[in-house]
Amino acid sequence: MASHRIRGNSNLTLVFLDTNAIFSIFEFSIDLEDELTRLLGSHVINIPEAVLHEMKIIFQKGKGKQKLLAKAALPYINKYPVLSHTSFENADDALLQLASDRNAVVVTNDKELRERLKEKKVPLIFLRGKQQLVFEK
Questions:
Q1: Structural domains of the chain in order of their starting residue, each with its CATH number
Q2: Run of H or E including 22
Q3: Per-residue pLDDT tens for 46-90?
Q4: CA count, 13 A, side-chain hemisphere, 32
């Protein structure tokens, strides 16, 4: 069984979304579900509560494009289960630790987070060329 598979169902990959990855769905008209199926096959998406919290803060206090993206993204992510967890200093720390603990794949475009994920050998997916997601193990 691959290390990024959910226990009990070797055909289902757990995926966590980062805030900027969610924004890119709206910014670049990406069909996330189709792209994840193309890359991973069967999968389940969860939103860590730290990401949801970050999104709500951007919606409440953000300005311009960021606020508009958060407004569009909040209803979109409500269709996915929110993963409760202990407190982390920020959403990046939460994603890193949760993905590592749960053998999940993280979807992010955050360069700094991508480097941290690579260091911990956490599989990740990122946007290349504003139109295609790329899976990196």
A1: 13-136 (3.40.50.1010)
A2: helix 19-27
A3: 999 999 999 999 999 999 999 999 999 999 999 999 999 999 999
A4: 24
Q: Rounded to two decimals, what is the model's pTM?
A: 0.90
109-119 per-position pLDDT tens digit = 999 999 999 99
Residues in the chain: 137
Query: Using only C-alpha atoms, what is the Rg of the chain?
Result: 14
| Crossing angle of helices 49-61 and 64-77, rounded to 10° | 140
The number of CA neighbours under 13 Å toward the Cβ of 119 is 8
What are the distances in angstroms from CA 102 to CA 30, 48, 65, 77, 109? 26, 12, 33, 20, 20
